Amino acid sequence: MLIENCGPKIEFRDIAALELELSAGLPDSYREFLLRYNGGTPTPDTVDVPGAPGTPTDVQVLFGIGRSVESSDLEWNLSLVAERCIGFRVLPIACDSGGNLFCLKVERGVAAEVIYCDLHAPDCVSYRVAPSFEQFISKLRPLEH
Question: What is the pTM for the complete model shown?
Fold first, then answer.
């Protein structure tokens, strides 16, 4: 996988602050991704979301910490998901071109499973995408024409 438009270099303390705010630990694979890339645009970028309307969809951008484009920043997207997906314990990690979110679901103090949150559905419907961030990334594929 190729990541372009990476975010600014961050330190482990930046991730620790995010985990504290979230009250959950992040998976090692996601911590490593943030330290290496801090978000960006993936290639390939297509992923299947079983059961979701309009699947497959794209991963337009993976979010990062302190990114200059507000809509690509983790903090900004945490606020968005808190406002749009009331009752969900998630960390938004990416979006598709339609503005829907890919999130790490937080359970028992750990953010692990990747879900797709359809922000256009009433009450923010979610769909399971992958059991881990690592498996989510491995599911990215080129769009078949």
Answer: 0.93
Query: CATH for 2-138?
Result: 3.40.1580.10
Domain range summary for the chain, segments of one domain joined by +: 2-138
Q: Are 118 and 127 in contact (CB under 8 A)?
A: yes
**Strands 110-118 and 125-130, bridge-based pairing:** antiparallel
pLDDT for the residue 136: 97
- Distance, in Å, from the CA atom of 16 to the CA atom of 140, rounded to the nearest integer, reads 27
pLDDT digits (tens, 9 = 90+) for 78-115: 988 888 888 888 899 999 999 999 999 988 777 789 99
